[in-house]
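re: ur question from yesterday

yeah so i grabbed the chain u mentioned. its 161 aa long if i counted rite. heres the sequnce exactly as i have it in my notes:
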Amino acid sequence: MKKIIIIGCPGSGKSTFARSLHEKTGIPLYYLDILKWNADKTTVSKEVFLHRLNNVLSESEWIIDGNYASTMELRVSMCDTVFFLDYDLDVCLSGIKERQGKTRPDMPWVETEDDEEFIEFIRNYNTLNRPKVLEILKNNRDKDIFVFKNRDEAELYLKMR
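ran it thru and got these structure tokens back, copy pasting raw so excuse formatting
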């Protein structure tokens, strides 16, 4: 396990899981949101984002936290291990609420209010995005794939590491 991606619905706890895994393994951790977003809530150009991502992917070891469907197949093809936090909607919505107002290393700004478009994305994730993720995972069975259905399963995995 040297090249790891952590995916799942926003609010599922990907970044928290990623930090814990990083602490246990010492593998460098990268957040897609940091590669893509500026502190003023604008995004870098697609070219800059892909350049940053490709720099990470060229490293010998990494943990990459984040979804970004546009680059998921690339990241899955380059990784050896996938962690999919496949949690219920209520868990993810609660996770979004819990992180409001907190400084986080995975985001270049502090979220202070609900973003209705983002909440709608989360509400639709299991219908629109999850099937695509499952299809990508099905097509990459040569990878070590861990699918956790709840936070207890993820925590148990980390305790056993």
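noticed a couple things. Residues 3-160 form a domain with the Rossmann fold fold (CATH 3.40.50.300). also The two ends are 12 Å apart (CA to CA).
anyway ttyl
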